[in-house]
Every structure is written in structure tokens, then in C-alpha cells.
User: Fold this.
Amino acid sequence: MNEGVEVPVLSGILTAMLLICGATITLIGASGLLRLKSFYQRVHAPTLGTTLGTTCVALASIIYFSALGSRVVVHELLIIVFVTVTTPISLMVLVRAAVAREESENKGMPSREVGNENR
Amino acid sequence: MSMMLAWSVTAAQILLAFAMVCATLRILWGPRAQDRVVGFDSLYVNAMLLLLAFGIRSGSALYFEAALIVALLGFVSTVALAKFLLRGEVIE
Assistant:
């Protein structure tokens, strides 16, 4: 840890609040991933962490390094844009794969038991 | 680094570590293969956020590049795994 370096108080408070908010939101999303019942519900939960959590933590990093170097550092915008754009793409491909797998498994079976989607 | 900022970085690291534990448990318990892939997706995003928190703690800009590479490779591997689940092979 860099002990001697001090950032201004306002930037420190903003960094701390954004870090705690982002980490808490990510933990809520991950616990939803653990607790929800079926696959199609579980897909939605971690996107809370990938959009809002990533934005909060990267904004905290932007504010901290801007205050540390006394100039605006916007590298972390790359991470925000990239993660926000790519997460829906990968999850849509994954859900289509899951639908195709279930359809190919249920082929030839006319009646499907209700509540059996949690295999 | 002031005391408040150090404590908040530590708390954020602990919370992100718990989020990684949740994703790992979903990988281990996941009843089907797509559940494990969703758990892997959540795991790499949490690892990337943990790297950003480490970067704030140490004050070095190197962790940012590691986080960017984790995000890139994680996206590519998630899409490759989903394609494998869809067709049975990655490149057709």
C-alpha cells in the first residue's frame, strides 16, 4: 500500500463510496446467481454486477487515479464500454444454446412434466 | 492513502471475494453445463473488479491492463463455451 500518498478528501470519499457500492451490488448479483431457481432466472442475476458494479468500481478507479496524478485519467472507460457491450452478446448466445439443447432433448417426448426445468 | 480509503478498499475486496465464492459454488453445484458457464462468466467479471480494487490499493496502473485482458479473454472464452454447447464444436 502506498502510505505516503494523500488524495484530496472529496476524491477519497467519492472513491470509497463508489467502491463499496459497486462491490455490494456485485455481491447481490452473485448471491442471486446462487439462490434463484431455474437457469433462465439465474442468467439475469449476475448482469447486475457486470453493468452497475463494473461502472461503479471503474468510476472509483478513474476518480482515484485522476486525483493521484492531478490530471484526468479515462482508461477505465474502455473496461466500462467493453463489458457493457459484450455481456448481452455472450449471454444471448448462451441462452440460445440452452434453448437448443432443451429442445433437442425433448424431441419425441410430447408431454413434459411441469417444474422439471431445474435439472 | 488515508485510513478511510484503505478500509473501504479492504471492505470492497472482501465483498468481491464473497461474490467470487458464490460464482464458484454455482460452478461446482450447477446442475447442467449452461449453469456452470454462467457461473464462469460471473467469476471472471468479479476477478476483473477485484483487480481494479487491487490497483486502487497499490496505486499502480499495471492492474488496469491486467483487468482489461481478463475482460477480453473472458468474453472470448464464454462465447466459445456457448458455441460448444450449441453445436458440439467451436469452429465449424
Observations:
- Chain B touches chain A through 53 residues (CB under 8 Å).
- The mean pLDDT of chain B is 89.
- Chain B has one domain: 3-87.
